[in-house]
Write a structure and sequence with these properties.
The complex is a heterodimer of chains A (770) and B (484).
Chain A lengths: L1 H4 L4 H12 L10 H11 L1 H4 L13 H6 L16 H7 L16 H12 L41 H13 L9 H13 L5 H11 L3 H10 L2 H15 L16 H12 L4 H10 L8 H6 L16 H21 L18 H10 L3 E2 L2 E5 L5 H6 L21 E4 L2 E2 L6 E4 L7 E5 L21 H8 L7 H14 L20 H13 L4 H9 L2 H4 L6 H6 L12 E2 L2 H11 L54 H4 L19 H9 L1 H17 L4 H13 L5 H19 L2 H8 L3 H9 L4 H15 L6 E2 L1
Antiparallel strand pairs in A: 1-4, 2-3, 5-6, 7-8
Chain B lengths: L5 H6 L13 H9 L29 E7 L5 H4 L4 H5 L7 H4 L7 H6 L11 E4 L4 E4 L12 E8 L5 H10 L9 H9 L9 E6 L23 E2 L18 H22 L3 H23 L6 H7 L8 H13 L4 E6 L14 H23 L6 E6 L3 E6 L7 E4 L3 E7 L6 E3 L1 E2 L6 E3 L2 E2 H11 L9 E3 L2 E3 L15
Parallel strand pairs in B: 1-7, 1-8, 4-12, 4-15, 5-6, 5-7
Antiparallel strand pairs in B: 2-3, 4-11, 8-11, 9-10, 13-14, 16-17
Helix pairs in contact in B: 9-10, 12-13
The chains are: A mainly alpha (770), B alpha/beta (484).
Chain lengths: 770, 484
């Protein structure tokens, strides 16, 4: 019985027992819980926490006893004189309740009658009914499933594979062979660091480690600073990071130190529970460090409306609404935002509970934290160290006046704001006051200290507590999607009842448990995934699968995935040898087509950075919300308007125009041409092959080599006779273009190589992780 | 491209840019049934620029030109003379009108009750319905009998950027798809070499809010509005870099196709076919877009009609461009003209600055309707005119004469496909403060525009973060009185 009592459905079971297991008119007492459950199902929507039609509320014993506008609803012991019974029966001049939906069944009416007849006993205080713990899969505790037995254990590299293979066995499908070493190493490099691998490095690892090359390569990549940059971008999407305030004015803002905090934390493999706590409530951690305060920038990435005539309170409330919705999507994978205006239509989250979550985020000031005051010298800026990870702080430099470095943070207000339910989600229509709290459908908030009201720190710790059934599942699922193109739960931001079911439920739970047991280590999770045989499969389509499993839910192969916006840019910079490996710092301004700000209210001049900052990773490109960098948005970078937990992968002509014509890519083409010429090669043919290899990490096939060669010859031939085009071509390409033009090789050959490089950088394979 | 393709449009819908519909309507229904597995729910991002195929009913409008007067034009200086307002000029507005209301610049209200402001403009009735139109819009009379004029549009939002977002996306927060992107998603493009949704801009600056106004929100980004600029490349990165002539570009695209095809043979991935086609369309766009924006190809008579001058960016030029675009199959062209925000400060007031924007737009708006009409395009093209809100009957306490933002009622007009000709809809109270009849909310406007395009606004949804979102949120009623 204890087992059953702990069952999430216990109240419902009691209710059913009340209905069918025993006679309601019998001698046994009617359990108040049964009545409460019935009230919740039939009455709360009008007489509950959110609405109190006729000033009657049935969700608390006090409310039931008090009655409503027409006076008491109960006469204990006398059911037939009680208005409540009149209402559910629709007699004695009462409209039948509930007015919409099914009326109470005969048995339910009898239950009510019996309860009143027995004296309408109820507790002195508390709630009428606890929320029915849903039986929905994702709200159940995370299990630790046994690793299944499989027919072909030899294929299994780690437990992930056993789960995948067991499913394939059931379906009578075979996994695909492992991809070749080069494809695999390029794939994992793009997935872990967002950068393609250099052919020489791959060859080096294969030469040094032979059969172990792949695992060694994975370890190497996990230690690269680029790892933190790549996964920071994933997090930045969810945080809706941008370098400007949005709305009309879209003024610049300084919050890049928070972005750098994320990079550093990921590179340090900060456990996700701490990563969460510091970002949601770093300021509330006793003895909070500067770094922990910087971390609270996560929820400062909301927009600010600076237009004249605004009601500041309105937009403060908008920010809080955004924070609640974002927190719900990012950590819980729940569409909590749906309950802003009304009870959630599908999941057991009430509007009241929405505002209880809202209360956690309703009590902050929004200051900027000065990290380096304006008058400070550069060397001190570098001694902030952790923020800027430059590593070259030893060099003393003369004191130069620099603008202050600030970052936007959250700070708890000493005096709490009252939080009231906003009727219809409208901030001008305040309803009942609520206290901070978590949705009843999830395990309750276990606070370290019972002093005061629960705050953001309690919320953060609750999100990452081991008994929270969602956070770990949501995280591993989302990360899985990055490695396979689709997450296990396809609706990765909706684990509620309207979401899709996991394709591999046991695998999801096993991963979620393992993730927590591994100390919430993201690097361990990533290592585990990429070392699996499942991950290492070839992505080639198979005819049998194209009909049986066209979307690859069963994972009998890998999937080709178009690179993310930043990785498209970064790949071109790597291939051309132009990439700056500087980590962190203020955002930068790579070349951008002119006139992008033509459609904004306040024009923001875009002066392209010179030197290494021109060739930084896409992650560092300054992001104006009103006029985002087109080279990124065209490849589906999100607009930083709302949290983005998964990007689109579109395939459009505007992408083609960008790669063909954007100056940023033009400089890469010149850079790649320059690079192969500098390396030197025995023949034109090997130049062509080398260029292809630098871009794809593999040698071209014979057919590809011929086609590339033919293109190259055609262009050389034409250019030789056309000095005007030749001069124009060789006058482009920024710094690498200048260097190329100055080289001694024949002009037509050099220019044709630029065209060839441009061709290679536009190939589908170049912007795809195979 | 010319009319009589309405039935074809209803049955043979097109995917965005280039893809043909792979499945029948039945197929879509099936996909919806299978939605739990994610095929159709597309919870966030499974689609790759595919437009949903199929319309809900036969459309009246095949395309839309939306003239967005950014800033909030003053109805009292343009269309809404109120004798009572003239009579009580400079008197405080009765408290019953403003009690409990919220306005922009609320802080100025707390000092004293704002005073009514009569207009200085002269009005005369135009068209068969006798709509009173001010001297600032002398060309409106030529189209009065083609227009369904609505006095009483209401919105919820009284600050510019969120109000513009609200009109465009049905939500005051960014992140939702705009009307044009919903249309692109719902019915795709008719053009093989131009985007489905194009945005044009004129006036002193861009509209407040910027890119989110024509964003695709959670819809695939292929559906977002493509800004055509009036200077430099009309589309970002449209021109080949210097030295790359058409022949080189053509041979590059050809070589790309061959090499991509080789790779497709080894991977079997059909996305590569899409990529090949994307490059071919990009290449075609490089020649079609410059031809499109070249206004020198228009007759002098046409240019004079609009008041357009090739090479000199203006709202008039954009109106000509809009017509050229819809002729080439662009589904939705949205023109922003800024600086309608006449508060009464020294820069923006109801004197010269208002006269200036009227002069910049009045003639071209009328010309556009007339030009579409004489070319037979007005039959199946919807023209929409309006701002993000209206202005108060009260003046503001500022240096010069002007009015505050007002959400209770503001004018819009519609012309062309599927709307009544020469009617005036809606009545406001004696001060023009609020509707007394015929109130039409922004969501109703959105529902009506979608309806005219053959779309049931309640059925065009997209699942995102667990909810089926639509342009009209949970609202929106058809404006039957203006439908033909």
């Amino acid at each position: 019985m204890a087992r059953i009592r702990n069952h999430p459905l216990f109240p419902a079971l009691v209710f059913l027992a009340g209905l069918f297991g025993q006679s309601a008119q019998g001698a046994e007492k009617v359990d108040f819980q049964t009545i409460g459950t019935l009230f919740r199902a039939k009455c709360f929507s009008c007489h509950g926490p959110e609405k109190q039609r006729a000033n009657l509320r049935l969700d608390t014993p006090a409310g039931i006893q008090e009655g409503g506008d027409s006076g008491p609803v109960l006469e204990p012991g006398k059911p037939d004189s009680s208005r409540l019974l009149d209402a559910v029966l629709g007699r004695n001049g009462q409209n039948r309740m509930p007015p919409k939906g099914d009326p109470l069944s005969e048995k339910e009416v009898e239950l009510v009658r019996a309860w009143i007849a027995e004296g309408a006993k109820m507790p002195a205080s508390g709630k009428t009914a606890t929320v029915d713990k849903s039986k929905h899969w994702s709200f159940q505790p995370i299990t630790n499933p046994q690793v299944p037995q499989v027919i072909q254990p030899a294929w299994v590299k780690n437990s992930i594979d056993a789960f995948v293979l067991a499913r394939l066995d059931r379906e009578g499908l075979k996994p695909s062979p492992e991809a070749d070493a080069i494809t695999l190493m390029r794939r994992v490099s793009l997935d872990l660091t967002g950068l393609p691998s250099e052919p020489a490095q791959i060859a080096n690892f294969i030469g040094r480690f032979g059969a172990q090359a792949y695992e060694k390569w994975v370890d190497h990549l996990l230690g690269q600073p680029a790892y933190g940059e790549r996964w920071a971008r994933v997090w930045l999407d969810q945080a809706r990071y941008a370098d400007s305030n949005g709305y009309s004015i879209d003024a610049p803002r300084s919050i890049w130190p928070w972005r750098d905090w994320v990079i550093q934390a990921l590179n340090d493999d900060m456990p996700f529970d701490r990563f969460t706590t510091e970002q949601l409530a770093g300021d509330l951690i006793p003895g909070a460090t500067v770094s922990q305060k910087v971390a609270t920038g996560f929820h400062r990435n909301t927009q600010i409306n600076e237009e004249g005539g605004v009601d500041k309170e309105q937009f403060r409330v908008e920010s809080v609404i955004d924070r609640v919705g974002t927190t719900g999507s990012v950590w819980l994978g729940l569409t909590i935002a749906c309950a802003q205006c009304h009870n959630h239509k599908f999941d057991p989250i009430s509007q009241r509970e929405y505002y209880q979550l809202f209360a956690f985020f309703n009590n902050q000031d929004e200051p900027s934290l000065t990290l380096v005051p304006a008058v400070m010298a550069k060397e001190q800026l570098e001694s902030v160290g952790k923020v800027d990870k430059d590593g070259k702080k030893a060099k003393a430099k003369p004191k130069v006046e620099k603008p202050a470095i600030t970052t936007m943070v959250l700070a708890e207000r000493p005096v709490a704001r009252q939080t009231k339910i906003l009727l219809g989600g409208d901030f001008t229509r305040a309803g009942m006051e609520v206290d901070a709290g978590t949705p009843a459908l999830l395990p309750s908030l276990n606070r370290a200290s019972a002093v005061g009201k629960p705050n953001r720190l309690d919320l953060a710790q609750w999100l990452v507590s081991r008994i929270n059934p969602l956070t770990s599942r949501v995280l591993v699922n989302r990360h899985w999607g990055h490695f396979f193109g689709l997450p296990l739960v396809e609706t990765e931001n909706d684990f509620g009842t309207q979401g899709s079911l996991p394709s591999h439920p046991d695998l999801l739970d096993w991963l979620a448990t393992r993730f927590m047991e591994d100390g919430w280590s993201m690097k361990k999770l990533h290592r585990l995934v990429v070392n699996s045989a499942t991950y290492r499969q070839s992505s080639a389509h198979r005819q049998d699968l194209d009909t049986r499993d066209p979307r690859n839910r069963l994972l009998a192969r890998q999937k080709r995935i178009r690179l993310g916006a930043e990785a498209v840019r970064d790949s071109a910079l790597v291939a051309s040898g132009l990439l700056s490996d500087k980590v962190g710092g203020p955002s930068v301004f790579p070349p951008q087509p002119s006139g992008v700000d033509q459609f904004t209210q306040v024009r923001r001049p875009w002066v392209a950075s010179e030197g290494p900052d021109r060739y930084r990773r896409g992650l560092y490109t300054h992001f104006w919300r009103a006029a985002p960098y087109p080279g990124l948005t065209v490849f589906d970078a999100p607009d930083a308007g709302t949290t983005c937990t998964r990007r689109n992968q579109s395939n459009t002509p505007l992408q083609a125009l960008t790669l063909l014509n954007d100056q940023a890519y033009g400089e890469c083409a010149h850079g790649l041409a320059l690079r192969v010429l500098k390396e030197g090669a025995e023949s034109q043919q090997s130049l062509v092959g080398r260029m292809f290899e630098l871009a794809m990490a593999r040698q071209p096939t014979e057919a590809e080599r011929q086609r590339l060669g033919r293109f190259n010859e055609e262009q050389v031939r034409r250019l030789e006779g056309n000095s005007k085009v030749l001069d124009l071509l060789l006058a482009q390409g920024g710094q690498p273009g200048k260097e190329l033009a100055a080289r001694p090789e024949a002009a037509a050959g050099k220019a044709a190589l630029v065209l060839l490089a441009r061709l290679v950088l536009n190939l589908d394979e170049f912007i795809t992780r195979e | 491209m010319h009319p009589n393709e309405m039935n074809a449009l209803a049955t043979e819908t097109r995917r965005h840019f280039f893809r043909r519909c792979p499945v029948s309507l039945g197929g879509i229904a099936l996909a919806n049934l299978l939605g739990r597995d994610g095929l159709a729910t597309g919870s966030t991002r499974v689609s790759t620029g595919d437009a949903l195929c199929g319309l809900h009913h036969t459309p009246k409008a095949k395309r839309v030109i939306y003239l967005f007067m950014a800033g909030g034009p003053s109805q009292f200086e343009l269309f809404e003379p109120k004798p009572e307002l003239q009579k009580l000029h400079d008197q405080p507005i009765p408290e019953s009108f403003v009690k409990g209301k919220r306005f922009a610049f609320m802080d100025t209200f707390s000092k004293e009750r704002p005073k009514l402001l009569g207009t200085k403009r002269k009005f005369a009735p135009v068209g068969d319905a006798g709509l009173q139109v001010s001297e600032l819009l002398p060309h409106f009379k030529y189209i009065a009998n083609d227009v369904a004029f609505v006095r009483t549009v209401a919105t919820d939002i009284f600050n510019h950027a969120p109000a513009k977002l609200f009109v465009n996306t049905g939500s005051a927060q960014s992140g939702r798809p705009s009307l044009g992107s919903w249309l692109s998603y719902g019915i795709g493009s008719e053009s093989k070499d131009l985007p489905a949704f194009v945005v044009l801009q004129s006036g002193g600056r861009g509209p407040r809010g910027g890119a989110p106004l024509w964003g695709s929100g959670f819809l695939p980004t292929a559906h977002q509005g493509v800004p055509f600029r009036s200077m430099g490349d009309p589309i970002v990165s449209l021109s080949s870099p210097p030295g790359i002539d058409q022949q080189i570009q053509g041979e590059t695209v050809e070589a790309l196709a061959d090499l991509n095809r080789l790779h497709q043979q080894s991977t079997g991935d059909s996305e590569i076919t899409t990529r090949i086609k994307a490059y071919e369309m990009a290449y075609r766009m490089q020649s079609s877009a410059p031809e499109l924006i070249d206004l020198k190809r228009e007759s002098k008579e046409t240019l004079d009609l609009y008041g357009a001058t090739p090479g000199k960016p203006s709202f008039a030029n954009n109106c000509v461009l809009a017509r050229r675009m819809i002729e080439r199959g662009v589904r939705f062209v949205q023109l922003y003209h800024t600086d309608w925000d006449h508060h009464g400060d020294t820069v923006n007031h109801l004197g010269g600055p208002l006269e200036k924007v009227c002069l910049e737009t009045d003639r071209a708006c009328a010309a556009l309707v007339l030009d579409l009409k004489r070319r037979g395009l007005l039959e199946d093209t919807l023209v929409v005119w309006g701002g993000e809100f209206g202005r108060t009957p009260m003046g503001e306490v500022r240096e010069l004469v002007g009015r505050n933002h007002h959400i209770d009622t503001f004018p819009m007009w519609f012309a062309g496909a599927g709307v009544k000709k020469g009617i005036v809809h809606g009545q406001t109270d004696e001060f023009g403060f609020a509707p007394v009849a015929g109130r039409a909310h922004v969501h109703d406007i959105q529902a009506t525009v979608l309806h005219l395009c053959g779309i049931d606004h309640k059925k065009l949804t997209y699942r995102f973060q667990g909810r089926d979102f639509r342009l009209t949120d949970v609202h929106g009623e058809l404006m039957a009185p203006i439908l033909a």
